[in-house]
Amino acid sequence: MTSNQEPDPFEPIRLGPVTLANRIIKAATSEGRSPEGLVTDDLIDFHLQFVRGGVGMTTVAYCCVSPQGRSAPGQILMSAEALPGLRRLTEAVHAEGAAISAQLGHAGPVASKKITGVRSVAPSPMVNPTSFERCREITRGEIAEVIRQFADAAEVAVDAGFDAVELHFGHNYLPSAFLSPLLNRRRDDYGGGIDQRSRLVREIAAAVRARVGGAIAVIAKVSMIDGVPGGIKLAESLRTVQLLDTDGNLDAIELTQGSSVVRQMFLFRGDVPVEDFAALMKQPVKTGVRLFGKKVLGEFPYQDLYMLESARQFLPVVRNSKLILLGGITDHGHMVTGLREGFDMVAVGRALLREPDLVGAIRADHDRTTLCTHCNRCMYTVYGRTHCVLDPTTAYGPVDTDGRTSLPLNAAPARA
Q1: Contact, 330 vs 369, CB < 8 A?
Q2: Which value, in Å, is the radius of gyration of the alpha carbons in the chain?
Q3: Is residue 190 annotated as part of the catalytic site, yes or no?
Q4: CB-CB contact of 283 with 268 (8 Å)
Q5: Is 404 helix (H, G, I), strand (E, B) or coil?
Q6: For a Cys staple, 86 with which of 22, 160, 236, 380, CB 3.0–4.6 Å?
């Protein structure tokens, strides 16, 4: 491509050992289609709609590295038991000519004892302001175990036929919590300055690379900022990413933002579906959500390419890894803008929940715009099967001409 040519989002790209058909990735979005923690036909169909719709790679959201690392019921545990189903999933995606990645995570302070049966862990003792559960400080021995669990999970991904793993180092899950000066107040060599707080993510990346070698691509998803007062700031995140990149264990870094502990809307932006969340809760939580939901979740206006301003700061410090841009990418112009800025790939989430075939539609018509309204009502469907409530093919029934579902705002989401 010459300097006068417009970058092409549909050009193939090499990612570690695999060549993606194009530069567009289906971002990880909670799925709710594995109620027993195992792959189902429903989960396979969910991902096939995106690869048939044109993405170069789809991402299986939140595969747990340990039972204690679950953040929601029914999440897949990377284990021998899950292996046959995972192979069915990867084979189905490969048959369509696309690649598939497994997002590996440990929830840490985002986990709940109601789900895992054990008290959640964090870098330092804390109370989760959303669940009101107290988290205990993780021990040095448990840290070593978590590092091994990430490597074990990556090995399962190789055996299952995945093309990549995405190490979830964002959103204040356990690895990300270590990066936060608010959540990490340790006095050992995993706490202190940003170089020390970055130790865990570097050791996880190194352990995963040592285990998988060059068999699959290794991606890290890193929060640039978490939007929490006293939390992860851009300047320190730049240093973390620089260290990860210099270590040479990553093929790509996906830049994200936000926290799953509090002020969750900093990640999503746009409308805050408080009434929808409240409708799923029992009293007195229901009233609390209605009164304080927006304060806890935060309110942040949506704008296209809303992570670009922060993400472009990482371009000068990354030398060895490809960079993936996320956040408000919904049309051809957004994709081209990201590539022109210097990013190698783009990731799309909510817009694909609304229209799984959006990428193919954009390829056919560069003027195509998304139907996604950024209402964020897909957020509360994580309590069942994640989907767009405006999609007429879901259990919500027909969509009115103004694009809104004909059911009331507080209708419960479909459940698996």
Answers
A1: yes
A2: 20
A3: no
A4: no
A5: coil
A6: 160
